[in-house]
Amino acid sequence: IDTKPVTSLPADTVKTDTIPIEPYVFNNVPLDSMLTAIAVAHGVSVEFENEAVRQLRFHFVWKRKDSLTRVVEKLNTFEAVNIGMEDNKLVVR
User: Fold this and answer.
1) Cβ atoms 49, 13 nearer than 8 A
2) 11: which of 23, 54, 56, 70 is 20 to 30 A away, CA to CA?
């Protein structure tokens, strides 16, 4: 009988959430990728009413402990975007 301690975890016990807890830096990342990651973590969806901003690239430090409202406030400090929240959805105008 093999009595060695287990040094690796079975695949089904490894967390699938690959975003580190604190903070996560988006560096030169398209807005749609960045917002999708943030939305998934907060259990909401993303809708682009303004397709022109979808591929704009940003540097943004995301603090996961911040509320979604706070994250949206920080993102809205960028002149190029206007993000609102409606019924569990981030809307980019």
Assistant:
1) no
2) 23
Strand ranges across the sheet with 83-85: 45-48, 89-92, 83-85
Contacts of 19 (CB under 8 A, 6+ apart): 37, 41, 64
Instruction: Give the pLDDT score at 64.
Output: 87
The tokens for 80 are 């190029």
H helix intervals, the chain: 31-42, 68-75
Structure tokens, 55: 């591929």
- pLDDT tens-digit profile of 25-73? 999 999 999 999 999 999 999 999 999 999 999 999 999 899 999 999 9
CA angle 7, 13, 14 (to 5 degrees): 80
Residue 1 tokens, joined: 């009988």
| Count of beta carbons in the 10 Å neighbourhood of residue 30 | 15
pTM of the model: 0.74
